[in-house]
Amino acid sequence: MFKKILIANRGEIACRVIKTAQKMGIKTVAVYSDADADALHVRMADEAVHIGPAPAAQSYLIIDKIVDACKKTGAEAVHPGYGFLSEKEAFCAALEAAGIVFIGPRPRAIAAMGDKIESKKLAAAANVSTVPGYMGVIADAEEAVKVARDIGYPVMIKASAGGGGKGMRVAFNDDEAREGFQSATNEAKSSFADDRVFVEKYIVEPRHIEIQVLGDSFGNVIYLGERECSIQRRHQKVIEEAPSPFLTPETRKAMGEEAVALSKAVDYQSAGTVEFIVDRDQNFYFLEMNTRLQVEHPVTEMITGIDLVEQMIRVAAGEKLALTQDEVKLTGWSLEARVYAEDPIRNFLPSIGRLTRYQPPEESDSVRVDTGIYEGSEISMYYDPMIAKLVTYGDTRADAIESMCQALDAYYIRGINHNVNFLTAIVTHPRFAEGRLSTGFIAEEFPDGFHGGAMSAETRKVLATVATMLHLSQVDREAEIEGKMDELGPRYGDDWVVNLGGEDIEVSFDMTYEGCVIRFGDESVSVESDWVPGMPLVQGLIDDSFVTVQADKLAEGYRLTHNGVSLKAMVRTPRAAALAKLMPVKLPPDTSKYLLCPMPGLVVSIDVAEGDEVKAGQALAVVEAMKMENILRAERDAKVVKVNVKKGDSLTVDAIMVEFE
Ligand code: ADP
């Protein structure tokens, strides 16, 4: 076994690999860029080597720097994680030349699976079912139309070098095929410096289901069941689970055996994933093979009890698989939610900055948090803005979902925007509970984006109860302040009015030995909690069920967050509530005359000048953030009176860029 390995990655996956290495008694070496000097993976590793400036292209992606770091520290092997150099054949070759072991498949397997057209041909040759289509490079838009007509609409135009959902377009007719060919080609050229595209049938109501395989250097390959990753936004996975609620044991077996056949065809060793698209009749088609550890691998670990990183390290060290196919048992259910630094309310714009407060849910047999950050860490613009992977486990799917809801309620993140409420809205959606998933789920269920979770009667009850309870504690606490005139103890009054996000709810209460009973109309709710002011989470029993509510103190009242809903809550006496109605409402400032910068970013261009008349939809400026260029357009016809910024300026969110008449 290796004595020391280097992890050529950062963030949660570097930390996750280090954990397994530590468990196996292997010393670890981290690498880091300028931006990551204080990162968690650097703190966790035994040693760390600085490899350059923040941009990945100048640090994590430079093969020579990784090889040098191995030589300097005596690391015998490298785990690449995912992304960065994990699927670069040249990286494996360079390590091999330096006598360092690559913890992953052989270069030949990486090369064979790196190209979509080539891998599809290989799959077809190994008798693996592939999406019907044309397995050649499309020369121009007219050929795209011809091929699309032969296959039959709808079709999908895909970049052969594609990855991460880039360079893919769906076309339902000739015009869309022409346009799709152009835009997929352009995107492929700019993202992968390779503009080859091909065309295949677009599978309707598709589910994304993938098979985890594991191979050794003796030609043994087994499959560890499937993961369903149908909950996607713009072809990017958001929630994954294992097993799939859709597959029959027969389909699972058939898919597993095809995945193994394909892996054997390329002498696959290490952990790998064969991705399939599955239609509503359980017909499945090969999409691609990922020759690395996947982001969503933990759900497989939870239901098989197998540590995939440990297996990868053992195989790389030359060990034989200790497990046969018959010994693989799938037990229980696991879900993973990707917690991202992004703002779902603002069209999922990435949110960068410091995590001023960060308290993940407690880990247990049913909750696992894979993360690379800690309170005070910064989410930088240089890398993927993932905060953590939240993984839950249960005996049944319903149990795993329940654990996920509880864990999301307890995930406390402040300082940047995040998608926790959006994730909650998905996992609490009735269609999700039914398991009626498809890759169109998010687009269909949230057609005009996300505007906060839906308020159910249950959530309303919980929030009103907690608001009342917090107020009671507050009154109690105030009564304890020394030097108060009143010696008669706290004065509660009999009735209160809870204002929940603008709605007034009349309540009254009784103190009990354990807590209190709160009454709304004819309903009464009992509450028990150890909360004291200052704690971000209010946890306790409401009518005997355990609930978690996040509470942020405001100048008046609290902002409460629970079950995907976040709103302001205030508790007043009936008199104060009646008077509050008479208070003038402060209107938000009118920003319709401004172009505001929607995210922190860099001005790439300003396309208008003072005095210009612009038309609705016209491009006004381009701002780059998180390596994406965003075109900002005029919302209506207007005249430009002032331009406040210029090319190269770095802007904060809501900076006024252009003013209109
Ligand atoms: P990438 O390598 O960019 O992730 P994939 O080939 O894995 O691209 O496809 C990503 C997603 O796009 C799939 O999970 C699926 O949702 C969708 N997709 C890909 N091919 C098809 C197809 N032929 N029909 C329908 N959806 C598809």
From TrEMBL:
Its cofactor is biotin. This is propionyl-CoA carboxylase. InterPro entries: ATP-grasp, BC-like_N, Biotin_BS, Biotin_carboxylase_complex, Biotin_carboxylation_dom, Biotin_COase_C, Biotin_lipoyl, CPAse_ATP-bd. Its EC number is 6.4.1.3. Pfam families: Biotin_carb_C, Biotin_carb_N, Biotin_lipoyl, CPSase_L_D2, PCC_BT. Residues 120-317 form the ATP-grasp domain. The keyword Lipid metabolism applies. The keyword Lipid metabolism applies.
